[in-house]
Known about the structure:
With about 375 residues, the protein is an alpha+beta fold. The protein has a single domain, classed as Penicillin V Acylase, Chain A, CATH 3.60.60.10. The protein is about 30% helix and about 25% strand. The strands form two sheets. It has an eight-stranded mixed β-sheet. It has a seven-stranded antiparallel β-sheet with strand order 1-15-14-13-4-3-12, covered by helices on one side. Helix 3 (about 70-85) crosses helix 5.
Amino acid sequence: MTSLFNINVQITPTSMPDVNFPVIQYSASDSPRQWGRKHGETWREAIDELVEIRTALMLEKNPKLGPVTIPDLARQQWKFTSEYDSGLADELQGIAEGANTSVDNIVILNNYTDFRDIQIDDQGCSAAFVSRNGNTVAGQTWDMHGSAKRFVCCLLVPSESHCGDSIVFSIVGCVGMMGFNASGNMVGVNNINTDGARPGILWPVLIRKLVEASNLDEQVRLMQSARLTSGRSFLLAGRDGGSFWEVMPGLCERVAALEPGDSGHLFHTNHCLGTAAKKRETIIAQSSTTHIRYGLLERKIGEVMDFDGLYDLMNDHENYPKSICSNFQTSSQDPSITCGGAVGDLLTGKIRMWRGDPVHDDNFVRREFQI
């Protein structure tokens, strides 16, 4: 098969063993189950280690979970996920088979941040959309527990639909955490802490569904119909506009938007902006850096005019370590660092994804795609 992706890689030397930000390319001639099996077989050792890490973190943050509760909750989430999208459930089943592990473990790997009613935040992403000066660009940092940085990857997913192929930022064993498609659409996501957590679909499954959607209306419909486990802020962006939505069980609120033809910018960190969402926000679990990063974005994003400008902003170190590219990690409130990110030009199809911090990491990896 001839790939629709042109890939260019920039890698700086690494001193610690990791998966080295691989590009996992699925074949259009294979089924989703076969995609998953090859994925799981190739990265079996890393997936096993990541399951162990995420299970331990989950139990540390919510000791009420245990050997009886975890499998029960995992099976409930699997049930809702399978009913929501059988194809992505097949891909996850294949990953479990290829990695020689249980579906419960793959549920934990994909959904551990939503698995429990968390009491501290461990994702502090910053997301942005800019449309002006003849350019339309979108991107985000990906901040999560520092233990995940060694496992981040890119997925190249073929599609038979008119939206075209997709490029997805992920971790090995997971079906996706943010991404772009060939039709010029981008989906980003931030964690927000809200009440009402319940068993629901795996949020990476919703990300893949949204990335593969053909337009904003379809994305909104898919988002509104999904049974989410806990709170998320979604960036839905395309060539004709973009919007941020704060979504949680029982609520889906649009909090910012640029309509077709509008010039300007949108951005979000990890606190609620919507009137209804604020009433359900759990302040005690809020990232200590969210307002700091929001203030930095608010002051700086007006200067972003193009792809390189947004990339520079996503890697900005003003007020380090509590910066947009954040490396503030403690054992209590903020166990997250910037593990990577992505930006894309929605008009030209130029995509850049990276692992780590280009300034403070000696194992930084950057990959360029043209879709």
